[in-house]
Amino acid sequence: xxxxxLHITDFTTEEIWETLELARWxxxxxxxxxxxxxxxxxxxxxxxxxxxxRTRVSFETGxxxxxxxxxFLGPNDIGIGKRESIADIARVLSRYNDxxxxxxxxxxxxxxxAEYADxxxxxxxTDFNHPCQIMADILTILEHRGTLDDLKITYVGDGNNIVHSxxxxxxxxxxxxxxxxxxxxxxxxxxxxxxxxxxLSEIEVSHDPFDAVKNADIIYTDVWASMGQKEEAExxxxxxxxxxxxxxxxxxxxxxxxxxxxxxxxxxxxxxxAVCDADYSIIFDEAENRMFAQNAxxxxxxxxxxx
Length: 307
Prior knowledge:
Elements: H1 13-32, E1 43-48, H2 53-65, E2 69-73, H3 86-96, E3 99-103, H4 107-116, E4 121-125, H5 131-145, E5 152-156, H6 161-169, E6 176-180, H7 189-197, E7 202-206, H8 209-212, E8 218-221, H9 233-239, H10 247-251, E9 258-261, H11 273-276, H12 283-305
Parallel strand pairs: 1-2, 1-3, 3-4, 5-6, 5-8, 6-7, 8-9
Helix pairs in contact: 1-12, 2-12, 3-4, 5-12
């Protein structure tokens, strides 16, 4: 028996709350320098088809801090779906390791990895979603607001994998979630419809950023051109020119608003320096919480996969 974390909706609402509380408890242990080693004598294989500083450091450091060993496997070590089949990689790594984290391009690759692995799989990112990031995000919002009640989040930018994971969270925790993007850059509209049909959250897609941010508690953005889209960068800069998060857009909320970005940020493009470095910017708290949210997810998966 094993559990994977491939999508936010792999956890129930109750399990999400349990994971957030566990993350806060682990974070307190960390700051108090108290020993807590649930990963003692455990190993984590980390597959990186798509590189990332934050994902590697947060998973590797986090697993080590809780007593385990994390092994980095880059594109030169494992060519997912190229040198060896995904099914065979899953089977082999399962013989050596207690858990596998994978940061991949194609979402179907992580689905196949989970299908054939005998150990828990954690989704470190795919082109479709980024569930660990959103767990860190909601943990950060909870820390700063003290509650998730009456929460309005406006995402400004490309309807990408970050948006898809926010939509998934909106199917578990009630919120008002507005996506402000240029026409032609909408998120997966089937997923938008699915989330709306849950009738738990208010979900809207807008093409007017200034209208979309009204009364927002959180303004969230991401790069306009993700890895693999850099050849589109100039066109995207033109198409997204009215969607930059700057002080004028922040002030249009009409209330005190927090700014979030999953990083890395292209300062001066999707967001200005003034916003990134403002008192209301919580981007570095958000980055820090990646480690604690991910550790909580992994503790839960390992515990439940061994019962």
